[in-house]
Amino acid sequence: MSWTLWLAIAALAVAVVALVVALGLRAQQTRQRRAHGDAPPAGEAPVEDDPRELVAFVANPSKPDVAGLETVVRAAFADAALPDPLWFETTVEDPGVGQTRAALAQGADVVVAVGGDGTVRAVAEGMVGSGRTMGLVPVGTGNLLARNLDLPVGDARAALAVVIAGTDRPVDVGWATVLRWAEDPDGAEGAEPGSTRDVRKEHIFLVIAGLGFDAAMVADTDDDLKAKVGWVAYFVAGIRHLHGRRMRAQLQLDDTPPVDARLRSLLIGNCGRLPGGLTLLPDAVIDDGILDIAAIDTRGGVVGWAQLFGEVVMQGLGVRNDLPAKIGRIDHARARRVRVRVEGGEQAQVDGDVLGLAVEIEARVDPGALVVRTA
């Protein structure tokens, strides 16, 4: 092969590389203009955006599995011939909502939550209503949403493969609002606007919101133990609350008249699978536009809790015991809006994040409000 032919081939290769780089820069500029609503410069024809997805990762750096993951992510995207992803890290002050909105503003088509349930909630809050897709790389303790969507848990590389090649699914979102807080020790009630204790603030949940025993168990879980043994730490904390008092509650579903009840816990679920293979809400479907409610009660001390645990295990297998004389029981209902009021105040939680002592809460469903990438 003559040197002139080699020279021609080299020139062609350089031209191709320059063209690819130029198109990439133009596409990035176009994406940035689109994110800010800017028109193309004068005399420049509209440029087709890069058809490949721009993916952003919002990662919780406090999780030990996150260290070094950014390098793995960038390598995986390079191998898949995808644009280099954006990378954001959460902070104590902003657990992910602000980073998610920044990613969307930069033109991200997919925003991936890398962390536990708290990070997933924050990213979802920033994504709701955007029409763009949320991905999951679950590296937390409970990983509730990932379990309910049958996504890989404890395997970041497998979860990353779903982000790259999965399919999108619209799912429902739950919102819980504390209408009245229990009085603080100093007698104050309410809080600064926008804070966790603001009575106007809606708190997103993707799996289960709860009031009573379950929230008290979460609130009492030791963080050091949770880091060592994972979700088992929740059950250790729960043992300390087995002999707690039953709460007096008034429950209203949609527009039906309120009813009085004695309960240990009230669960309001978008879906119902928990760690350890437990299913609290066997009829809950994440995209049916309905919330599933479980009113849980026990009497008789440890015997009642043992019977209740048996109920949970059996209903997960599709077997239910509807005998009226049970001392541990779960009553199920369904609604689009739920309001509950309890005497004195009880701990409230959303997807494992404790809100505080609440006297009255309301929850509603937002059908199909979030698009999630699944396997």
Automatic annotation (TrEMBL):
Keywords (A to Z) from UniProt: ATP-binding, Kinase, Lipid biosynthesis, Lipid metabolism, Nucleotide-binding, Phospholipid biosynthesis, Phospholipid metabolism, Transferase
GO MF annotation, one: kinase activity
Domain DAGKc: 100-180
CC terms in the record's Gene Ontology section: plasma membrane
GO BP term, pick one: phospholipid biosynthetic process
SUPFAM superfamilies for the chain: NAD kinase/diacylglycerol kinase-like
Superkingdom, natural source: Bacteria
Cofactors named for this entry: Mg(2+)
Family matches, as InterPro entries: ATP-NAD_kinase_N, Diacylglycerol_kinase_cat_dom, Lipid_Phosphate_FormReg, NAD/diacylglycerol_kinase_sf, YegS/DAGK_C
The family this protein is said to belong to: Belongs to the diacylglycerol/lipid kinase family.
Name recorded for this polypeptide: Diacylglycerol kinase
Organism, as annotated: Cellulosimicrobium composti
